[in-house]
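Fold this complex.
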Amino acid sequence: MRRPVAPWGLLATVTLVALALTACASGSGSGAPSGTADVTVAPPASFAPTTVRLLTHDSFAVSDDVLADLAARTGVTVQVVTAGDAGELVNRAVLTAGNPEGDVLFGLDTTLLSRAVDAEVFAPYRPAALAEVSPKLREIDTDDAVVPVDYGDVCVNRDDRWFADRGLVPPATLEQLADPRYRDLLVVENPATSSPGLAFLLATVARYGEEGWTGYWERLRANGVRVVNGWTEAYTGEFSGGGGRGTRPLVVSYASSPPAEIVFAADPKPSAPSTSVLTDGCYRQVEFAGVLRGTDRPEAARAVVDWLLSEPFQADVALSMFVFPARDGTALPEVFTRFAAVPPEPLALAPEVVAENRDRWVEAWTEVVLR
Amino acid sequence: MGAAPLRAWVLAIVPVGVLLAFLAWPVAVLLAHSLSGRSVEVLQQPSVWRVVGFTLGQALLSTLLTLAVALPGTFVLHRYAFPGRRALLAVATVPFVLPTVVVGLAFRALLPPSWVGTLGVILLAHVFFNYAVVVRVVGGLWAHLDPRYEQVARALGATPWRAFRTVTWPLLRPAVAAAAALVLLFTFTSFGVVLVLGGPTTVTLEVEIYRRTAQLLDLSGAAGLALLQLGALGVVLLVSARLQARVAVAQRLRTDPAETTVRPRRPGQLVLLGGVLASIGVLLVAPMVALVYRSVRVGDGFGLAWWRALADVDAGTTGFSAPLAALRVSLGYAAVATVVAVVVGGLAACAVAYARHGASLLDAGLTLPLGTSAVTVGFGLLLAYGRPPLDLRGSWGMVPLAHALVAVPLVLRTVLPVARSVDPRLRQVAATLGAAPLRTWATVDLPQLARALGVGAGFAFAVSLGEFGATAFLARADSPTLPVQVVRLLGRPGEQSLGTAMALATVLMVVTALAVLVTERLRAGRPGQL
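Structure:
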C-alpha cells in the first residue's frame, strides 16, 4: 500500500528528481557547510517522497518550520511517533530489535545506552555531520550505533527568593546539602521511578565513589531530605520556587529549568528567573539518535539522522526541549545564554558502568534512604 | 425452554473473541517470551511479599471505605428527587476520569504536606476516584427497583431500616457485590495514585510490574509478578461472579423516575441528603475546584492568560499543535471506544445473564482486563501483532480498542444486574404469543436494558476520555490526548505550563460531565411499559 501505483509513481519520480536537483543546487550554491553535508549523504534515488517514522519519547518537540525544512530539502517527511517515556521507548525498541516500530529512534540517554547497543537495536551509521559535534560528546563510546544529538545537566535548583527572604546564603556545593544549616530544605526524586532522580544518584556515586556515596546519602537522610516519586511532584508540588507553591527551596531538576521559568512565565515576563542552579554536582545526560536495524528505508532514515544533527534542528532544541545542542558553535537563544547554567565540571559515568551497576545502586539507595 | 431469548454462546462469540485476541493472546505471548527461573525466584523475595501485603491491605481498606461513603450517595442520587440531581450525578462521575497526576496536585494543594505519602491520602484518593464506580454500578439497579416492595414492608409495620435490610438490600446485593469487586480490582491495581500521592515506600504490585517491565526490562521478574497478580484477581473475580449469580433475584424493574424517586421531606431524609451533599462537596468537588482555581491564578492575581494559551501552539508541548488540539483527538477516540465497548459489553452482559454453564467464568474473564497491567498488555501486543501480515503496531485503532477493553468490564457490570433481573416470565409470555427469539429479546429485554446501556455508554466515553496508561504507552503519530497533554505540560517548568495544564484539566472535567449528561438522556426512546 505504501508504494504509489504507476502514474503516481511516475509523477512522484519526476517531482523528486526536480526536488533533488533543487536541493543539490541550493546546497552547492549557498556554500553553507551544513547544506553540502546533508546533500552528500543520500543519493537522489532515496529522495522518494518517503515518510520516516521517528520513534521518540513524550518530551520530544520540534518546531513546524524545522520539520518543513527537511521535507523541502530532501522529500523526506518525518512522522513523529511517541512511545512512552525514555525508559519505555528504549525497552520496547530492545524487545522489537530487528523488527522495529519505526525507522529512526531519538531519545536514548546515557543511562540506557549500553542496553540498547548490546541488544543490536541500531544499524550502525556515522554521519558526516558528526565531525561538527562537540569533541567531549564524541568521546562517549557508542560503537557508531548512535550519534549524540543534545545534552542537559541534572542539577539542584535553588529558590533564590526564599533564601534572600531569610538572609540565608544558599548552598553552593553538593557537600553543603548535608549541612545542618540546610536541614529539611531539599526534595529529590526516587531513582527507582524518575530519570532526574536516577541522574542525581549517579552524580553522588561519581562524586563520592563506590565506597562513599551511601555515607553521603545517610547524611542527607539525617538532614531531612524528602523523596517523591516524580519530577512533577518534586518541582510543582514540593519546590517553593518557580510555578510551584511548595515549601522546600531546593529541588533536583535541570540546569535549563531557570530559562524555562522565563519562557513559560506570565506576561509581562520577569527580567530574571527567581531560581538558580547549583552548578556543583551536576550529572550530564546526553541524548542519542540512530537508525533502527530492520527498517525498510535505511537511506531516508539516515537522512533523518543527518537532519537531527543539521543546523536548523540543532538551533531549535534549546527552546523546544530545553536541552543544549550537541553541535559545536550552534547559536543559543538569549534566554539560555543569560540564565541557563553551564556547570564547569559536570559529573558522568561510563554507560557500561551504569548498565552494570544501576539496579544494585538503586537497591542500595532504597535500603539507605527509605528503610 | 424460553428462559433465555437467545443462545448465550451466540452472544458470547464477539466478547470472547475480542478478549482472546487482544488480551489473552498478547499476554500469553509475552509470558511465553519471558517466563524463566527468575520469574519464580522473584516470588521468593521477602520484599516482593511486603509489596503484595501492602497491595492487598490498601485495596481492602479502600473498597470498604469507598462503599461506606458512596452507598448513601448512590441512594440519594438515584431515589431522591431534588433540583440539580442529574448535574450532581454527572459531577460525581468526573473524578473517575481525571489523570492521577492532576488529582495528585489538587490533593497536595488542599492537604497538609505531612499527609502526603501516607496510606491515609492514598485511601482518600481511592474514594475520590471510585465513588463513581459505586454510584454508577449500584445506581444502575437501585434507580429502578420497584418501590412498592418496600412500601408493602412499611405498610406491614417495618421500620425504614428493617424494610431496607430485609427487602431492598437482598435485591441490591448483586450490584453491590459487582461494585465492590470493581473497586477492589481498581485499587488492587492502583498505579498513578500510588506513584503520585504515595511515598517511595508505598509500592503496589502494579507499580513493581511496571518498573520491572518498562524501566528495568526485567521481563522475567515482571512475568512472575504479573502471573501472581492475575491469579489473585482471577480468584477474587470468580468468587465475586459466583456470589453475584447466586444472590441475583428476578424482579420487575420500574423505568419511570416518577415512580421510583421521592421528594425528601421528612427530617431523616433531609439529614441524609445534607450529609451526602456535604461529603460530595468535601471529597469530590473541593479537589476539582482547586484545579479550576489554579487555572485562573496568574502571577499574584487572577486572569485568563492560561485559558488563552490553550489555543497557542507555543504553549503546547509538540511544537506543532496547541494544547486544545488534544480535545479533538480525545473526542475521536472516545466516540469509537464507546461504540465498541457498548456493543461488546452489552452482548457480554446478556451472554452472562442467559448462560446456564460457565457464566461465572465468562464474567470473570471479561472483567480481567482491569486486573492486567497496561504495560503487560502493551508489551504483549508489540510481540503478538508485530509481524506482517498483521502488524498492528502504531495503527490508529489500537488506542480506542485499548480504551474499549478497559471500558467493557464497566459496561458489563452496569448492564448485567439489570439483564439478570429481567423477569423470565415476560419472555415466556412473548414466546408463547409466538415471538421469535430475536424479537423477544428486542421487545422484552432491550427496553429494560436501554437505560443501563445508556449509563454504560456514558461511563465508557468518560473512561476513554480519561485513560492515560495505555494511551501514553501505545505508539501514536498524532497529537496527544487530553490527559497525555495535561501530564506533558506538567512535566515542564514555568507558571504557564502549570496554569495551562490546569485549564486543560478543567476542559477535561467539563467535557466528561457533559458527555455523561448527554448519553444518559440518549436512552433509546421511552422504555417499554408492560
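Chain A has two domains: 6-151+286-325, 153-284+344-369.
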